[in-house]
Design the sequence.
């Protein structure tokens, strides 16, 4: 097996998809090497999405530290997911695909996919677990308004894992005219590479911004990790700066890296919450975006190589950080990056960077209920 | 593994997928020197069953009804190639405790009842990854498997793992050639772009895929996915050398061995009349 990231990655998919992945890889390499693609993406980022996003110093939230938040919550649609959705939509148009299929957990990627489909005139089908539809209703309504068809997934965990499987099955069935707009740095090659490259803008901007503000790089950079796309985007800006510690924060009940084992899920080999027979286990998290038993293969590689560390945050700690950021800074974070914020106080380092990957409007019902 | 028996003697399939030779090696038996432009007669009938407590008896019934080969599903929690029927069957099997060890025992019991029928476990890569790739192949063979199918391990990956390869309507000629080189005895033609499950009619994509595969290989071609009725079986056998029936067989198997034998007989009759 030709694996992409050390012993992780690869293409564990039915034969039907192999030619489509070959086509996608060729199209991606062409786009990646084409200045016109980057110019268009840069212009869309600037004039449509709101890039660059600011860096905010939050001294009341973290007294005694210099904590900067990379404000992806201020991106159009309210999360970093749009970086990837815009780049893949441009790619889909280049590949001549008229139909987009996507999965969503918290609904942020579903909204981003529905948004770019509205913008580019593409048909959009989003698979979402019925449990997530219940707890992320505002995003469900946004997707419908944007013209996407949201298909409930009513079996298994009724969350992101099953939604991803159903999206892949749809792609297998409609592969001729459909692009699968995967939402995280997971899936068969070349998806982890594509999503990582499209999210790298987070780390690129943040590195320049914090250097401008402080005259040095952060001592530590943190991001929440579900599938891991905002984290891989942030980390990519600093991975070669060996003095910058990289920390990924998982939900305690969905710690694919903290307590997983090598297994194959959704087309790639990675660290997965699985039993000794390779059966994938259910993740448990208050945060629909982190409620996923797998993780991007590059994270498994970064963990094994020691370049990044991965820690866990409980539901209660995330809720406390959510409330604290809201009360001390007037910033309402999504529950996902609240997991990263919860770990800041205990850090030894003073100069800290956290990716605030999305805003928390979608989580109000979940938070108010507690 | 206790109670297992090795397959012995000739396998009465029209085109066996492989057999265990004197050295214990899995070896492809390739049909050669025949007119490759016309399908082999009588057409082979492969029946898929999900591993479970009743499966050995069901497999026996399928062979009584005229099946030449039995695929035994080792369930996986996230089966990407499968439609609702087999996905639900996998969920049920897992809730009954059909993990890898139990599936190997099911295979061994089936082998004990059917000493001469090719038995082919069909599963997903995660089970092999967890069990150990070579160990899985060794344990399956020791329990009576004559080959393997791994639905999410495409041709070109782990060529050392002897298994039946799948090709699809989307496969390029180059990939069909690679799959034919690597496959174990016969080539599994996925008739449609989609997941497993019954369809109203035989896929129109099969004819083109058969033509392209015949241009590449003299191996027997078995068509599967979406084949559920005697009419489908007859139409598929006009093109291919065998058929694979999965989802509908899994559904009928819920009504017990007698119902399954009767259903398989209806397919067998259609194939023999083709």
Sequence:
């Amino acid at each position: 097996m030709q694996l992409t990231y050390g012993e992780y990655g690869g293409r564990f998919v039915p034969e039907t998809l192999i030619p489509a992945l070959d086509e996608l890889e060729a199209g991606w390499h062409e786009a990646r090497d084409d200045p016109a693609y980057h110019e268009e993406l840069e212009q869309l980022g600037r004039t449509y999405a709101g890039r660059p996003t600011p860096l905010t110093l939050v001294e009341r939230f973290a007294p005694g530290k210099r904590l900067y938040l990379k404000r992806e919550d201020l991106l159009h649609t309210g999360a970093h997911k749009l970086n990837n959705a815009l780049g893949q939509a441009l790619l889909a148009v280049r590949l001549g695909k008229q139909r987009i299929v996507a999965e969503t957990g918290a609904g942020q990627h579903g909204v981003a996919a529905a948004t770019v489909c509205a913008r580019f005139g593409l048909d959009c089908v989003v698979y979402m677990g019925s449990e997530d539809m219940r707890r992320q209703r505002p995003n469900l309504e946004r997707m419908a308004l944007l013209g996407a068809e949201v298909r409930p997934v009513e079996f298994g965990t009724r969350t992101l894992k099953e939604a991803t499987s159903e999206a892949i099955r749809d792609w297998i069935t409609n592969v001729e005219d459909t692009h699968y707009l995967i939402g995280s740095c997971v899936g068969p090659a070349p998806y982890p590479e594509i999503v990582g490259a499209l999210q790298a803008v987070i780390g690129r901007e943040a590195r320049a911004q914090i250097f401008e503000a402080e005259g040095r790089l952060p001592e530590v950079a943190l991001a929440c990790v579900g599938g891991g796309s905002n984290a891989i985007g942030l980390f990519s800006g600093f991975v070669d700066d060996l003095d910058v510690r990289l920390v990924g924060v998982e939900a305690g009940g969905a710690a694919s890296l903290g307590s997983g084992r090598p297994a194959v899920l959704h087309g790639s080999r990675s660290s997965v919450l699985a039993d000794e027979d390779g059966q994938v286990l259910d993740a448990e998290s208050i945060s629909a975006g982190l409620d996923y038993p797998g993780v991007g293969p590059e994270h498994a590689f970064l963990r094994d190589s020691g370049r990044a560390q991965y820690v866990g945050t409980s539901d209660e700690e995330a809720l406390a950080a959510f409330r604290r950021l809201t009360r001390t800074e007037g910033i309402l974070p999504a529950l996902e990056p609240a997991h990263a914020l919860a770990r800041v106080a205990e850090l030894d380092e003073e100069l800290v960077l956290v990716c605030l990957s999305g805003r928390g409007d979608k989580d109000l019902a979940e938070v108010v209920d507690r | 593994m206790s109670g297992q028996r090795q397959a012995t003697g000739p396998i009465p399939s029209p085109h066996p997928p492989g057999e265990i030779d004197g050295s214990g090696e899995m070896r492809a038996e390739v049909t050669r020197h025949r007119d490759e432009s016309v399908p082999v007669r009588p057409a082979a009938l492969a029946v898929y069953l999900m591993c479970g407590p009743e499966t050995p008896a069901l497999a026996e019934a399928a062979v009584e009804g005229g099946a030449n080969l039995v695929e035994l599903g080792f369930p996986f929690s996230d089966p990407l190639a499968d439609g609702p029927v087999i996905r639900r069957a996998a969920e049920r099997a897992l809730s009954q405790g059909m993990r890898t060890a139990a599936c190997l025992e099911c295979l061994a019991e089936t082998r004990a009842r059917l000493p001469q029928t090719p038995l082919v476990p069909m599963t997903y890569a995660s089970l092999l990854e967890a069990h150990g790739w070579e160990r899985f192949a060794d344990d399956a063979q020791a329990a009576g498997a004559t080959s393997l199918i791994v639905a999410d391990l495409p041709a070109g990956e782990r060529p050392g793992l002897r298994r039946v390869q799948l090709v699809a309507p989307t496969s390029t000629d180059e990939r069909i050639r690679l799959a034919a080189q690597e496959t174990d005895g016969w080539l599994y033609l996925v008739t449609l772009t989609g997941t497993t499950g019954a369809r109203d009619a035989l896929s129109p994509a099969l004819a083109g895929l058969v033509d392209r595969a015949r241009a590449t290989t003299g191996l027997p071609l078995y068509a599967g996915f979406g084949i559920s009725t005697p009419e489908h079986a007859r139409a598929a056998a006009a093109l291919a050398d065998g058929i694979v029936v999965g989802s509908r067989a899994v559904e009928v198997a819920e009504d017990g061995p007698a119902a399954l034998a009767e259903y398989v007989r209806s397919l067998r009759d259609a194939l023999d009349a083709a």
